[in-house]
Amino acid sequence: MGLSGNHNQAEICVIGGGVVGLSVALGLIRNGHQVCVLDESDLAFRASRGNFGLVWVQGKGDSLAQYAQISRRSARLWQPLAKRLQADTGIDIQLQQKGGLFFCLTEAELQARKQMLSQMQVAVGGDYPFEVLDLQQLRELEPEAGPEVAGATWFPEDGHLNPLLFFRALTDSFLKQGGQIIHSGTVSDIRALTQGFQIQTSQNGLWQCQKVVLCAGLGNQILAPMLGLNAPVVPNRGQVLISERVKPFLTYPTGHVRQTGEGTVQIGDSKEDVGFDSGTRIEVMAKIANRARKMYPILNRVRLVRAWGALRVMTPDGYPIYQQSEVHRNAYLVTCHSGITLGALHEGPIADWISQGSTDLPLEVFNDQRFKL
Amino acid sequence: MTNVSNFKRLPSRHDASVTVFVEGQAVQVQAHDSAAAAILAAGLGHSRTTPITGSGRAPYCMMGVCFECLVEIDGQANTQGCMTLVREGMQIKRQQQARLLTDSQHD
């Protein structure tokens, strides 16, 4: 389809077919819109296929209470979304929200974390139900916690899911409900028409739409200025280690190690500024593996079978951008590095905001002008 | 056991004969064969069961990528059969679902 020169039409074009774009797109379909997702290609940096799969709340928004607020709201919306996806597609995305642990290897680390979470608790007027566990208390939850662990912080709203199954469920549900996904190649130009927008793609010609939503991850940096928006996002690499499948021995996800529904142990949480390089480095893999085996010494017995790098989509302050363009009111920007945690928010109230133009979310703090001094 | 394998060995390369045991049954293979090749030659059928549903799987890619050929080799669970060269007396058994980590292997 789409010989150059043809004008393909959609009511709303969502640029970016990762979990952020598809979550928003699915919510727009729910609002009754006709939606087309323009997805670059397999050459794109795909954070959606490389991420860790946490639905994580604790510690998020330590310097911005509204970020804590929207992360927790998304966490509360996750069970109904997972149920709906299963009803629509038959796919169980393995969502578990039984609580999560953040291991601290030293007493100093544990005290610093306790202080941070205490401050967050005060900032929200007390409703922030974390607990600090010493090693003995931790072992009541995770008996394999190692002797070098000082303790952990516990938060009951944390959880995890299988991000690849979530991605697939989103895709299936969206297509089933009449959504279109076009493997369009790179979007090279977006311009406002008298009414609506015209989008130039490298592989599928021109698209015209009434409304456009940028969910292009790292690509937003280039696309946003075309619509009077600002997205100074940069890549931050995380590396992940994957083990052989072993019978379940971990009950709760942690910030660094989790066990999937199939028994795979996933180890991660490295952070590197290396530009647009999604490769791996042995020094970093060794470091995260070493931390993991201090957390759970039984991991010394586990064989690793795979490793990869993936690029987080980071703003200068680490918080998302939700912005309606001041120049072109039918253009929106959605970008974040926690596309899984915030997935239910994006499918829900964020899509409703884009559909209806208003919201009760505190989106003003996530504006795109805050990086301009 | 009666060999019901659909795989027929081509007369292209001859090597010393090695005896391995597939689920306890002696099987003659060639010294350059992998454990996965031995399974196919023996006509074992499924050589592992999946971690969740327990459905049967057999060697597939034969080049170390797909992990369908996981078997227990000389007591070592979750071993890639296609990446393991046979040796005299090797014991190859089906991998039954996920490996139990509290076993004594790989310390």
TrEMBL record, chain A:
<dbReference type="InterPro" id="IPR036188">
    <property type="entry name" value="FAD/NAD-bd_sf"/>
</dbReference>
<dbReference type="InterPro" id="IPR006076">
    <property type="entry name" value="FAD-dep_OxRdtase"/>
</dbReference>
<keyword id="KW-0560">Oxidoreductase</keyword>
<dbReference type="GO" id="GO:0016491">
    <property type="term" value="F:oxidoreductase activity"/>
</dbReference>
<dbReference type="GO" id="GO:0005737">
    <property type="term" value="C:cytoplasm"/>
</dbReference>
<feature type="domain" description="FAD dependent oxidoreductase">
    <location>
        <begin position="12"/>
        <end position="344"/>
    </location>
</feature>
<dbReference type="Pfam" id="PF01266">
    <property type="entry name" value="DAO"/>
</dbReference>
<protein>
    <submittedName>
        <fullName>FAD-dependent oxidoreductase</fullName>
    </submittedName>
</protein>
Automatic annotation (TrEMBL), chain B:
<dbReference type="InterPro" id="IPR036010">
    <property type="entry name" value="2Fe-2S_ferredoxin-like_sf"/>
</dbReference>
<dbReference type="GO" id="GO:0016491">
    <property type="term" value="F:oxidoreductase activity"/>
</dbReference>
<protein>
    <recommendedName>
        <fullName>Sarcosine oxidase subunit alpha</fullName>
    </recommendedName>
</protein>
<keyword id="KW-0560">Oxidoreductase</keyword>
<dbReference type="Pfam" id="PF13510">
    <property type="entry name" value="Fer2_4"/>
</dbReference>
<dbReference type="GO" id="GO:0051536">
    <property type="term" value="F:iron-sulfur cluster binding"/>
</dbReference>
<dbReference type="InterPro" id="IPR042204">
    <property type="entry name" value="2Fe-2S-bd_N"/>
</dbReference>
